[in-house]
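Re: duplicated header lines in exported structure tokens

Our pipeline writes sequence and tokens for each protein into one text file. With two proteins the header for the second block appears twice in some exports. Here is an export where it did not happen, for reference. First protein block:
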Amino acid sequence: MTQPNADDGGPDGLASPAPGAGEAFDPFEEPSPAAKASRVSRRTSLAIVAAAAVVAIGLTGGIAWIAVSKDKGRDPSMPTLVLAAPISDESLDSLASSHSGMKFAVGPGDGKVQLTNMKGDQQNRVLTGHTDAVLSVAFSPDEATLATASLDKTVRLWDTETGESTATLGPFDDEAWSVAYSPDGTTLAITVADGTVRLWDTATSQYSDDLGGHDYGALSLAYSPDGALLATGAGDGTIRFYDTATYEVVASLDGHINSVFGLAFSPDGTRLASASFDETVRLWDVSSHENTLTLDGHGASVAAVAFSSDGKVLASASADETVKLWDPSTGRLIVTLEEHTDGATAVAFSDDGSALFSGSGDGTYRMWLLVGWDPGVENG
């Protein structure tokens, strides 16, 4: 695969789409030898601290974090960085926390998925099988299965207790970009860079439908909390809503002028957030399909978005090396987190709202403490 030039209109870690409809494009840039060496050094120096922090957090949850916040005299206007975990010499491209918060997965650029299970023996496993970057990871609602989508044109399913691969879907005609389970767990939706959206029936282990649809690069997707809608984002900047009762297109949203890399519904299902290569985040009214807010504070492509569990904060990860937190009701920028040293590629909140996770081209994921943080307090 030809690697994009970061100076060719593309921010670090994300490349502009290829001009031809249906042609594959790669959002990741090969790090320099110096950068790799630096990451190895960081990985060695932080590994023990990171491992200890993960175990402590898994055992004690928010109690440990509250103690840290009190002892450190935290600034209520800023989330607190409590963990910087080196994962790979290459980019970290995806991450997900399970509903219970007891399982956590990250997808690096080398294809070796790392799965942490906080139950029992607190096993940390490396899941091998993919041969290229893992762009998306998703836990099934019952947390028994992890789905991973890769540039190697496959999706793999893994048993989260044993770490064994239980199925390989594909190879598809093009790169697999995103996976998402329906809220009831009966369907796994998959976007493929050739524009198709595949639906996998988890009960029968068969494909139930091929939505086709997008003219160029189906890249991102998300189910609404009630499971009634599936939203998909494409390389041409369009977003589609599918009625999951029939999987017919019920709306097409136009506004972005370039690839839509990330989608997230608000917890109440009334809003959709979208992240784009055009350097903006847009908010959409799910009922009227109107673009209600456009957030343009990033200086480079935006790779991912996520809502907090109460819907009061929206996080966005960008190739400008920052994670920004917004008030999704007003569009106010609350705070900018600048700890990453390469493009931020992934972002997720813990289900209880106590932590924010971000992944980056610098090969790390970072965890930010939100306990004691007040989004209403102005920073600086």
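Second protein block, exported in the same file:
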Amino acid sequence: MPGSRHGRSTRIAVLTLGGALALSACGGTDEGESAGSSATAAVVAGETITVGEVQTASREVGEILRVQAESQGQQPQEVGPDALLSSLVQIPATLEYAEDNDISVPSEASVVKRLGEVVPSPSPQTIDFVRASSVYSQLEPDQQQEMAQQLEEQDVKYSPRYASAGGESPNWLDRSEDELPFETP
């Protein structure tokens, strides 16, 4: 399967979802979640994002959005794994853009502290999601456009299960020669 390129609107819309997070220190749960499947969901910049990581981050970000919405008397936005994966593949480029352009990025420790009671032990993907969202919320419109162009150029390979995250329809029967050997979750 060749690398998928995303439309700017999909990338920006999903990343913006987290850009507006103004987390409150409201109650959460201490439920222990399993790590999930080690099957590959996507590969970006040589790094594998597993199905389990996507599922865990989706639950955690969903909880963050639920608490935020409740604190504002609103209905929470739902973030499914496909939509969240679209954001997760953007994180490395977003954090790199911040570093290259001297944009403030919250430390992992400050994000963990900020999430506090909402998500007591956030996954690395959730921490980086919040960090990247913070970066995106600081960008001027011209910087957003510049970053969107960089994001469109990155090479991302998705498991057929998550093809819709890349704006494609999964084709379970037609496999190309260069398709990654994805596991079935």
